[in-house]
UniProtKB/TrEMBL annotation:
Domain of life: Bacteria
Family matches, as Pfam families: ADH_Fe_C, Fe-ADH
Family: Belongs to the iron-containing alcohol dehydrogenase family.
Cited InterPro entries: ADH_Fe/GldA, ADH_Fe_C, ADH_Fe_CS, Alcohol_dehydrogenase_Fe
Record keyword Flavoprotein present: no
Protein name stated in the entry: Iron-containing alcohol dehydrogenase
Organism: Paraburkholderia pallida
Sequence ranges assigned to domain Fe-containing alcohol dehydrogenase-like C-terminal in this UniProt record: 196-405
Alcohol dehydrogenase iron-type/glycerol dehydrogenase GldA domain boundaries: 14-185
Cofactor(s) the record lists: Fe cation
GO molecular function: alcohol dehydrogenase (NAD+) activity; metal ion binding
Record keywords: NAD, Oxidoreductase
NAD as UniProt keyword: yes
Amino acid sequence: MNDNILGLGLLRQPKSVLFGPGQRRQLPYIAKSIASSVLIVTDARMAASETFHEIRHSLEDHGIAVSVYAETEPDLPRENILAVVNRYAHGTASCAIDAVIGIGGGSCLDLAKVCAVALVNQHDVRDYYGEFRVPAPGLPVITVPTTGGTGAEVTCISVVYDRDKGMKLGIASPHLEPYAAVIDPELTLTCPPGLTAATAADALSHLVEAFTARAKNPTPEEIDTKLYAGKNRLTDLFAGQGLALLNTSLARVIDSPGDIAARADVMFAAYCAGMAINTTGTAGAHAIQSPMATYCDAPHGFGVGALLPYIMRFNLPSRVEAFAEMGRIFGVAQASQSTLEQAQAAILRVEALLETARAPLDLKSIGLKPEQFDAIADQAMQATRLLANNPRTLTKQAIVAILQKGYEGDRSWWEIA
C-alpha cells in the first residue's frame, strides 16, 4: 500500500536519549543507576584514545567496576560475539557484569546489543538471526556512538557477518533496544575523513529509504510481531528533520572537520535516521548492498551510497509524491515545476550530497564486476524483510538491471519492466 491511509504513528526507541557536545560526562550517572559493574565493548583505536581513558576513569571514580573488550572488528564478524561470550559468560568474570556499554561505530554498538542478550540467554548467535528470535531480555545496554551515520545507538537491530555463510545477517528484536543512548558530537571530532564520509552516506541512505518506504498500515497483531511496521507519521517527522539537517551540514563537516556545530547537525541527522529505520526498516539499497560486500571491500556507507542513485530511479514511479516532498525539504523543488520534476530534483540533490561526501556514485569504482551480478541478485532476494519495505517490488531481474545501470554509471531516467 503506497498511502498511509490510517495515519498511524509508531516509534521504537530507547528509554533515554541524551544529546549534545560534552554529554559523555553524564555517562557514569546513567550507568550507576543500573549497574555496579559494566563491560565496555569498543575497538582498538578508540581504546587507545585519551577520551576513552577519560570515560573509563569517570566510571571507576563513581564506584563502577569496568571490564573492557577492545577487539571489535569492522562489519562485526560472528567471531567477536563468540569471543565476548566465551570470555565473560563463564566463570567469575561474568558474575559481576550487570550492564554493557558500547563505545564506537556501528559494529561496536551492534556488538554491545548482541552480547547483552547472548551473555544472559547463552545461545549461539545464529539462533537469533531473523526477527523476534531472541527469547528474553538481556543486560541493559548504554550506547555511545563515535561516528555520525549508522543510527545503531537507537535501533533494536544488529548486523553480523557470518563467515561460514559468507553473508551479513540481521538480528531484529525488541530485546536489543538500548536502555540509553549518550550522543556526544565531540566524540566524532577525531573520526577520520574517509569514515566521516562513509557514515554520512549511510545516514543519507537511511533517511531516503525511510522517507520513501512502504506504508504497511499494520494490524495490531503485526505491530506486536513485526519490527518493520512501515513508513508512518512519526517516522516521517524524524526522516524529514534528518534530511533537512544533512542538506545544510554535510558540506560543512567535510570541508571543516573541526566544526562542532556541523558535527552536531550530522550526528543529529544520523540519530533521526536511526529513529526512523527502527520502525520503517531499510529497503532495496541495503538488501542489495549486503551480498555486494562479499565481492568488494568498500565501506558499507559507500556501498549503499553507490547504489542509491539507481534504486531511487527504480522506486520513483511508486514514490513521486514522497520524492517531491523531499525536494521541498531540500529547497530544490520549485512551485512552478510539475510533481515529477520536483521529485527528480530531490534525487539530483541526494546525488549532489553524495558527491559532496566524496562517495562513489557507480559500482565499477568500488570493484564490482558484471559476472557477480547474478549471484548478488540471488542473495539479495533472500533479504525478504528489507525487500518488503521497498516501495516498488524488486524481482531478481530488476536487481540485475539496477546493478547493470549502477556499473555503467547510467543516471538517466529509466524504467524497469
